[in-house]
Specification:
Elements (H helix, E strand, L loop, with lengths): L6 H4 L4 H29 L11 H12 L20 H11 L5 H4 L6 H11 L2 H12 L4 E5 L16 E5 L2 E12 L6 E9 L11 E7 L5 E6 L12 E12 L10 H35 L15 H31 L5 H26 L10 H9 L8 H13 L2 H21 L9 H9 L5
The structure holds flavin-adenine dinucleotide (FAD).
Length: 457
């Protein structure tokens, strides 16, 4: 709720956003979290899991709209379609939504639609916006972003191979994609596809382009849906999709041939902040569950409630510290993004992208441990939460890629700090010399005394 906004950023959150934050928190706690079980029950079993979507989502969407909770993710000042919240303000809302499986979609703030809508709002032309952005913003259709491919190391997007060849007034697409999140949903109407238009371009960052492909275009086959640690994420799902001579009009190109890298870079900044804040919400919910379990009067191993066992209070305290510290990191990235633009926020966003999922996994794991066997079962939300958060160490680029880049950036200071340290050492020596002193090494005086006393040591 608004009174829980960290002091460090409270004065940057408008009164309007504070009011909305209270509404979001109440909506999530009282409507969405209880509805999560209905979502699971209505998803059904077997093939039916991919043939429709739980009706509860439509009910929640109507409630969210009546409360004014719709498309809050589109940042203020960047888009005329924005409801007017800053990245910081939306980040605080996203944290609440991250506590529930249904809340983000109920408010039309679910990935990958959010990132895809930003692509269309930022880079799409008027016709593309009318055709795809409008229905997405109205919550009438859903979308998928298709970049990753099974046959290449896709964390290096230069490797992407799906071929896009121009033939007359059409582009023809051939290739394979996987981890196409959202492709399982029958409402998924549009694929935003990255592929190669100019493999011979000397600049590897100008070889790729992004095109809009309607999901039902002939030549597209969803071969299978991938599981995440055994969870299929139906009806959303993660598709393995093949393209055989898929034809789209040249007007489907976004921004222009060779601009794919520019688009994917622009897409990921705010999305990473949203993911990170939702993940903090998940960690908070895991901590809530842990608190419930450790105070359970029915469960008294070795004659005491769990909370009376020393280590458990340490888990609780460490979880609180780690969640709060991570939140600061993400909100700082959000503020930098709002006040200095996405480029200035790049390193803070990367820090958040790496730190938050690892933090949340640790907190969730402590909660799992506190529950014993129940923690890994379907009787708590923890097992699904863990599987879901674990994927964030891979999705939008694996940790190592961000760490390698951050390490290189940090190491740029290497030469300068070496010079500074050497200068400081030289100055110390000079100061000692001026005072006729020698540098004392720890232990040397004791050694000197012992030797004088004739000890063999
Ligand atoms: C649940 C889920 C949802 C996803 N949703 C989407 C989606 O909607 N659209 C989409 O296009 N993709 C999606 N992805 C794919 C995801 O973005 C990729 O899996 C990720 O970018 C890694 O690419 P890769 O799987 O090809 O692994 P690879 O590129 O083969 O990398 C494998 C491993 O190599 C290591 N590695 C890579 N680079 C370095 C380096 N520089 N230094 C050290 N080690 C390194 C890392 O440990 C990495 O995990 C999703 C993935 C998951 C799990």
């Amino acid at each position: 709720m608004a009174d829980k906004i960290p002091t460090i950023c409270s004065n940057r959150v408008s009164d309007r956003a504070k009011k909305t934050l209270d509404i979001v928190a109440k909506f999530v706690q009282e409507e969405c979290i209880p509805a999560d079980a209905v979502f699971d029950a209505q998803t059904g079993a077997g093939d039916a899991r991919w043939e429709g979507h739980p009706q509860i989502i439509e009910e929640l969407k109507l409630k969210a709209q009546s409360l004014g909770l719709w498309n809050m993710f589109l940042p203020k000042g960047h888009y005329k379609e924005s409801p007017g919240y800053t990245t910081l303000e939306y980040g605080l809302m996203a944290e609440w939504m991250g506590r529930s499986r249904t809340a983000s979609e109920a408010c039309n703030c679910a990935a990958p639609d959010t990132g895809n809508m930003e692509v269309l709002a930022k880079y799409g032309n008027d016709a593309q916006k009318a055709q795809w952005l409008r229905p997405l913003m109205e919550g009438k259709v859903r979308s998928a972003f298709l970049m990753t491919e099974p046959q290449v190391a896709s964390s290096d997007a230069r490797n992407i191979e799906l071929n896009i060849t121009r033939e007359g007034n059409e582009y023809v697409l051939n290739g394979q994609k996987w981890w196409s999140s959202g492709a399982g949903d029958p409402r998924c109407a549009i694929y935003i596809v990255m592929g190669k238009t100019d493999g011979n371009n000397k600049d590897p960052y100008r070889q790729q382009s992004v095109v809009l492909v309607p999901a039902g275009t002939p030549g597209i086959t969803v071969n299978r849906m991938l599981n995440v640690y055994g969870f299929d994420d139906a009806p959303h799902g993660h598709g393995h999709v093949s393209f055989v001579n898929v034809r789209v009009p040249v007007s489907s190109m976004v921004l222009g041939e060779g601009r794919g890298f520019e688009i994917i870079q622009g897409r990921l900044g705010p999305g990473r902040i949203h993911h990170a804040m939702r993940t903090i919400g998940a960690a908070e919910r895991a901590l809530d569950w842990m608190l419930m379990r450790i105070n359970d009067p029915q469960k008294t191993p070795f004659g005491k409630k769990l909370r009376e066992h020393g280590v458990i209070m340490e888990w609780v305290a460490r979880s609180r510290i780690e969640i709060d510290a991570s939140r600061m990191l993400v909100l700082n990235a959000a503020i930098t993004m709002d006040e200095q633009g996405p480029k200035a926020a790049l390193s803070q966003i990367a820090e958040a992208k790496v730190m938050v999922p690892s933090m949340a996994l640790t907190v969730i794991d402590r909660a799992v441990q506190a529950f014993g066997g129940a923690g890994v079962s379907q009787d708590t939300p923890l097992a699904y939460m863990w599987a879901n958060v674990r994927t964030l160490r891979l999705a939008d680029g694996p940790d190592e890629v961000h760490l390698a880049q951050m390490g290189r950036n940090e190491n740029k200071r290497g030469e300068a700090v070496t010079k500074q340290i050497q200068w400081q050492k030289a100055k110390s020596e000079q100061l000692l010399k001026e005072r006729n002193l020698t540098q004392v090494q720890p232990g040397t005086r004791i050694q000197h005394r012992i030797n004088k006393a004739g000890s063999k040591l």
